[in-house]
């Protein structure tokens, strides 16, 4: 980016500044005349007590500035500087003195950068020391020992003239035993913004306040009604607990005029923690451990709701997908852009349902604001029309001596919202040391004031810091924003207003080419294989979901897990990213395999037709439907399925149940025939693994048929013979009855005649009767029944019971 801000604009109080500059010139005239009248001499003779010699470039005494208040003083304020001095050398320092020096005016943004790089260089120019009464003295500094200092000076005593940023130095002078003269042994340069009067054209500053974390949730959920989520770690609980990184972000941001930039996945993950969640056990054999931070999660979400009330909220796509990786490696994989669109669509619903505010989803935020044409194309493919980029990837414009306003129209109805690179990166690095934090705050204020003094044109400036600031970085950012909001040259503005502000016609609008994309960022991108695995998992999910009676129990957790698989937070962690994506795919395979065909052994058929059952097992907690089971004969000339090569039947199985599907088969020849059972979805796609088994067919021959026919004929003949025998026996019995009846009639006639003819009756002895027939004889227990036919010597019929 071309250097912007190398010239300052006109001050709002030109008369006053002219008087100050004139006074400074008149005060320096006698001193200059005295220098001109000095005779030539050695450097030692020319040196004055006000300019002690330096010991070395980095100094033997480390000086830190741990606090500077106020960061941007006004007239009447008292500037207080505190910190420590530490003797790093091997010799004790005696007659040590810590004082303040006000150096030259830093009137360009690049000069501030240079001063920041040389903040500990004792050879860097420093102004004259302020009055000796504003110093702190130490009789002795022991090697390796730190001593604190605090110096307070009225702002009026600093002799600040023109408005702008001054180099403020804290120096330590003293002597050592081997160098017994006064010298500068340590220094720390910092920045002192001086703008006591309100600027007429204040800079409108937008500060993006990001609530983004890494991926914590997996795709796995419990089988209970609530679908208990599984987290792959419990680190999120630490981040939202009191004192944690995200807890500090919310506590600090609620009192600032900032635009909240939120990853909906973070909110969804914390909300999942408010009820019941599980994390894996420490060992592979351990059961999942129930997380115990429900109250912490509830409290954090409540605090976020309070913090964002009446504030602008920008929702990133769910999971914060890596737009650059997607543009460079994912667009060639079918379906990758579909996930970005889904992530964008679900973002607004998630934020609104949890925070009860309507967020903006019009923004895309590539990593570190670095873009090229392909990234812009992908960023806008999901509906965003504003892309947050950073100034070090965009040219400011030709011959610009100031930093242009943030919005830049780049064509196609898309606006590049250019964040200021210097203000956005000043909080990078370790901010746990008070000296580093204070230096970052003063540098931020210095850059902001210098930018404001560049021109009297109204401008909108956007600050886009790192995505996941540490707690210390967040604290430093909050201090800087608080000081800026109290300043005389800046006023807060939300991101939407900044994006809608009038663009500067002189600002550059050309999107950098692909060759200009930083190589350091390209090395961290997700590979093509990552998007291929995501696409493969999505294809499996599409096949699986169509058979489910309640698709939401699977589609929602897996869809969000696939979004997380493309997250920016995986940059620099390729192994962890691969493990996460593989875990999602493996778990989906496990669920899909719960609906399967039961293996079958060889089946035997001993007739021309038979029924073959095939069992479908569903071990899921929900029912499956829209499945078709196809049974196919690989040798239809030997074995047909329902008169054809195959047959299909619809299948629906309740959760935790099995169902047998029966198929009618027809055998045409004996031998083995291989049969294949395969489940299909209703759209004709195979589901699961097929089951193959053999069917042994025994054909029924003509000989066998003759034998069976002969047997049947014998049975018929035997039955006919039995029938004729019984009929003959019945006829004989009828004949015997007729004979007996005739004999009875004859006896009766004879009895009648005897009564009429005594001679006849006397021929029989008295008391002797006529011979009895079988029917007239007394019945004995062993006698057969009256109607039983005479026993036959012929064989009995099949199935007939015979008394022996």
Automatic annotation (TrEMBL):
It comes from the Bacteria. The chain crosses the membrane at residues 700-720. PROSITE patterns: TONB_DEPENDENT_REC_1 (PS00430). It holds the Pfam family DUF6049. InterPro entries: DUF6049, Ig-like_fold, TonB_box_CS. Residues 737-749 have a biased composition (Acidic residues). Residues 493-522, 731-804 are annotated as: Disordered. Keywords: Membrane, Transmembrane, Transmembrane helix. This is DUF6049 family protein. The lineage of its organism: Bacteria, Bacillati, Actinomycetota, Actinomycetes, Kitasatosporales.
């Amino acid at each position: 980016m071309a250097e912007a801000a190398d010239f300052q604009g006109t001050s709002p109080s030109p008369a006053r500044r002219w008087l100050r500059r004139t006074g400074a010139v008149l005060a320096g005239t006698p001193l200059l005349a005295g220098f001109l009248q000095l005779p030539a001499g050695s450097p030692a003779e020319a040196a004055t007590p006000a300019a002690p010699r330096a010991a070395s470039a980095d100094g033997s005494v480390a000086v830190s500035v741990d606090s500077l208040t106020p960061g941007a003083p006004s007239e009447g304020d008292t500037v207080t500087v505190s910190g420590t001095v530490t003797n790093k050398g091997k010799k004790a320092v005696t007659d040590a003195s810590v004082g303040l020096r006000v150096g030259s005016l830093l009137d360009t943004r690049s000069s501030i950068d240079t001063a920041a790089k040389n903040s500990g260089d004792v050879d860097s120019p420093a102004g004259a020391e302020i009055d000796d009464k504003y110093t702190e003295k130490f009789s002795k500094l022991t090697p390796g020992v730190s001593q604190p200092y605090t110096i307070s000076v009225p702002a009026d005593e600093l002799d600040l003239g023109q408005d702008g940023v001054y180099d403020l130095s804290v120096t330590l002078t003293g002597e050592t035993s081997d160098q017994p003269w006064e010298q500068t042994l340590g220094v720390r340069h910092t920045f002192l913004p001086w703008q006591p009067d309100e600027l007429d054209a204040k800079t409108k500053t937008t500060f993006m306040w990001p609530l983004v974390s890494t991926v914590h949730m997996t795709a796995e959920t419990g089988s209970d009604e609530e679908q208990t989520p599984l987290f792959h770690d419990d680190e999120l609980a630490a981040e939202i607990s009191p004192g944690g990184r995200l807890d500090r972000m919310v506590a600090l941001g609620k009192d600032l005029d900032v635009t909240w930039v939120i990853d909906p996945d973070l909110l969804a993950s914390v909300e999942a923690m408010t009820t019941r969640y599980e994390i894996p056990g420490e060992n592979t054999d351990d059961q999942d451990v129930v997380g115990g931070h429900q109250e912490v999660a509830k409290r954090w979400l409540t605090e976020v709701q309070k913090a964002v009330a009446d504030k602008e909220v920008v929702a990133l796509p769910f999971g914060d997908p890596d737009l650059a990786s997607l543009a460079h490696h994912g667009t060639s994989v079918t379906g990758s852009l579909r996930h970005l669109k889904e992530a964008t669509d679900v973002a607004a619903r998630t934020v609104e349902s949890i925070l009860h505010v309507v967020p903006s989803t019009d923004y895309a935020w590539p990593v570190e604001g670095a873009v090229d044409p392909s990234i812009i194309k992908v960023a806008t493919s999901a509906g965003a029309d504003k892309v947050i980029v950073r100034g070090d990837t965009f040219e400011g414009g030709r011959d610009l001596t100031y930093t242009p306003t943030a919005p830049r129209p780049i064509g196609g109805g898309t606006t590049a919202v250019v964040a200021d690179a210097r203000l956005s990166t000043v909080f990078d690095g370790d901010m746990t040391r008070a000296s580093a934090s204070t230096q970052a705050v003063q540098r931020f204020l210095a850059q902001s004031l210098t930018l404001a003094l560049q021109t009297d044109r109204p401008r909108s400036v956007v600050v886009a810091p790192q995505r996941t600031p540490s707690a210390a970085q967040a604290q430093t950012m909050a201090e800087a924003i608080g000081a800026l909001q109290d300043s005389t040259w800046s006023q807060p503005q939300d991101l939407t207003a900044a994006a809608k502000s009038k663009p500067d016609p002189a600002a550059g609008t050309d999107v950098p080419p692909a060759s200009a994309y930083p190589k350091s960022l390209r090395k961290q991108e997700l590979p093509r294989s990552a998007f291929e695995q995501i696409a493969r998992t999505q294809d499996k999910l599409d096949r699986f979901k169509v058979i489910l009676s309640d698709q939401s129990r699977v589609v929602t957790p897996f869809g969000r897990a696939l979004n997380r698989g493309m997250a920016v937070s995986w940059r620099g962690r390729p192994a962890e990213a691969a493990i996460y994506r593989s875990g999602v795919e493996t778990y989906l395979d496990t669920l899909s395999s719960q609906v399967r065909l039961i293996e079958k052994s060889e089946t035997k058929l001993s007739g021309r037709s038979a029924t073959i059952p095939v069992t479908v097992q569903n071990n899921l907690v929900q029912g499956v439907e829209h499945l078709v089971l196809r049974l196919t004969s690989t040798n239809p000339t030997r074995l047909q399925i329902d008169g054809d090569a195959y047959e299909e039947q619809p299948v629906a199985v309740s959760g935790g149940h099995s169902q047998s599907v029966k198929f009618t088969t027809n055998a045409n020849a004996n031998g083995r025939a291989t049969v294949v059972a395969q489940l299909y979805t209703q759209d004709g796609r195979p589901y699961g693994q097929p089951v193959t088994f053999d069917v042994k067919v025994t054909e029924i021959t003509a000989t066998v048929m003759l034998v069976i026919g002969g047997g049947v004929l014998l049975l018929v003949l035997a039955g006919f013979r039995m029938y004729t025998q019984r009929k003959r026996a019945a006829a004989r019995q009828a004949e015997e009855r007729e004979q007996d009846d005739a004999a009875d009639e004859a006896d009766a006639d004879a009895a009648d005649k005897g009564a009429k003819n005594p001679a006849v009756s006397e021929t029989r002895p008295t008391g002797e009767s006529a011979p009895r027939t079988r029917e007239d004889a007394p019945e004995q227990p062993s006698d057969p029944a009256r109607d039983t036919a005479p026993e036959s010597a012929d064989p009995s019929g099949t199935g007939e019971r015979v008394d022996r």
